[in-house]
Amino acid sequence: MDQLSNSVMDLIKQNKLDEAEAVSRQLLNEYPDQIDGFERLGQVYEARGKKQIAAEYYQKAADFAKTMPGFDEQSVEHYLSKAKKMEEKK
Q1: pLDDT at 90
Q2: Is residue 68 helix, strand or coil?
Q3: Residue 13 belongs to domain spanning
Q4: Cβ(17)–Cβ(11) below 8 Å
Q5: Does 79 score more than 70 pLDDT?
Q6: Based on the structure, what is the number of domains in the chain?
Q7: pLDDT, tens digit, for every residue of 34-53?
Q8: What is the DSSP annotation of 11-63?
Q9: Helix orientation angle between 51-67 and 36-48, rounded to the nearest 10 degrees
Q10: CATH number for the domain harbouring residue 75
Q11: How far, in Å, CA of 59 to CA of 1, rounded?
Q12: What are phi and psi of 70, to 5 degrees?
């Protein structure tokens, strides 16, 4: 899972955004109990300049972090902050 998640970042850096989105969706499907799919989709849409959709995925990541063990308030705030930043840039 870590390798898949990290590959999304590499694909974004290479501007292979369709591939990055496909891998992000694969993460969501294969690892629904992990936050990576939501976070990576936020990053893909941010790279595409689709700030509203990016904000929605960062919000989903925050909601996920609120309900799953292992996430602290700082993690939730991180994703909420990213969502707010995207909404301000619309």
Answers
A1: 58
A2: coil
A3: 2-88
A4: yes
A5: yes
A6: 1
A7: 999 999 999 999 999 999 99
A8: HHHTT-HHHHHHHHHHHHHH-TTSSHHHHHHHHHHHHHT-HHHHHHHHHHHHH
A9: 170
A10: 1.25.40.10
A11: 22
A12: 100, -5
